[in-house]
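haha ok so turns out i had the wrong file open the whole time. this is the CORRECT one, sorry everyone. sequence first:
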Amino acid sequence: MSDQLFISELFSSIQGEGFLAGRRQVFIRLTECNLDCGYCDTSYEKAATYRVETKPGSGAFLELPQPLSLSTVSNLLVEWTTALPGAHHSISLTGGEPLLCADVLIDWLPELRKQLPIHLETNGTLTAPLEQVVEQIDYISMDMKLPSTAGCSGQQLWERHDLFLRVAQASTVSVKVVVGDATPHAEIRQVCDIIASVDPAIPLFLQPLSLSCGTIGISGSHLLGLQEVAASQLSDVRVIPQMHKLLRVL
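then structure:
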């Protein structure tokens, strides 16, 4: 069994995005990503240490040497869930891009899942790694990266998102897109075409672009217009900003 995982932090907080927004989770934030999105405000480089909360929700951290072991995180989960029974809904694997570590997660997930359900936050581009672990994932929050906000190349990612979603539907999957004032209706139609071709009941979350100054990078009228376009094709379209930023939690 592989017992090494490089992470940046491990903490307890409220999920602020997508299908499980409002649920409290244990977050394991992994390092490294295969994309470079324009709105990303997180450093994903491997470091000599990672930080872990001294107790869940405290906001106080210890620095520990890398890498994180499965036994360390398992013992921590037992401690936190015993101290706060029923408080945590699930474990959120976030990043970075967690599926870059699928060769480790294939061993880890069955053990972690004995304690809490698994929620994967992913950029929705790594289909082959997902196939390795999808049976051990309860919830998948899949991004589709829009050229207008993420700045990634369009056609190549549309095709990869399509393939990814077809595998992800083996789990409880939802799709999230970050939208801004520059987001055209055509991009939302493309997202909806992909979702509808797999299952039009898959939830779509429109997430307003958060700017570094703390404001939202899309007008209310444009946001509503994008929602109207999506709702004409899909049965479950929701608008949710990054709630954890509004709540000022991690």
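The beta strands are 7-14, 24-30, 49-53, 61-65, 90-94, 118-122, 139-143, 172-179, 204-208, 237-239.
again sry for the mixup
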